[in-house]
# Entry
Amino acid sequence: MSRLHVVTGKGGTGKTTVAAALALALASGGRRTLLIEVEGRQGIAQLFETEALPYEERKIAVAHDGGEVHALAIDPERALLDYLQMFYKLGSAGRALKKLGAIDFATTIAPGLRDVLLTGKACEAVRRRDKNDRRVYDAVVMDAPPTGRITRFLAVNEEVAGLAKVGPVHNQAQAVMRVLKSPETAVHLVTLLEEMPVQETLDGVAELRAAGLPVGAVLVNMVRPHLLDEDLLDRAGTGRPEGSAGHVTDALGRAGLSHADRLVAPLLDQAREHAERVGLEREQRAALAELDMPVHELGLLGEGIELAGLYQLAADLRDQLPPSREAA
# Structure
């Protein structure tokens, strides 16, 4: 069973929203999840209508049946200080380096170091156990970088392990990659039923698989409902079939609308546009189906994203996800 859920997606697909909803869904059944932000945008705090996330883990939400969602915004500088203390016992010397600006310099200039720290912190949370040797978190959800950067972001530890042949850096990088390439990890890709996001999803899955990283599911966000049945869709897609205008005029008149004839042409145009959109969406669904991986759909929220809407998305996801097993 996957414990680390990495959520990526093209910009504008609602990646952060879906990551937050997934964390809530995975907390169902009284479970405990950790939601991690790595890009420093504080999008998670905005979604949960809470103050900016600190580097320390704290509870930000309760699932509908009592589960808990904790959250953390990873600061690369603080993560590097933790790393220096963990492996080199620098303590106050590490804090002195921060004051001198050496920490900021290292995370900016050292190739891949920032990504190593971010992925390392997430994997540490996955492995962490309490004094009773039980997992502290049943699941960890990472709001990760966009699809175009996700493979390099996750695979950077492999590069670091190759550069540092021995020592703590090598061992840490190898430990992180063991988690990232194991069944404990699943990389989920958020998309819309539009050509560009779907194509980027197809490319992203191919890159992840080529790198040996485990893909999880495609999460299709902002799915709009179909307003017409199959027969009406077929007729609307042909433009203005013979007799449609008269039928629409009669129906509007029976509904009590005055000047119904003025509304007919715009309504038929909207029906045609709707039919065209449904056809394009079906083409994108067919493309995603060729990936041979789970596809879950989340409906478009008419009122926009607020806390109630986030819980609704979580409920929709929970109904589609496979049943959770108890933590070991």
User: Anything to note?
Assistant: The chain has a mean pLDDT of 81.
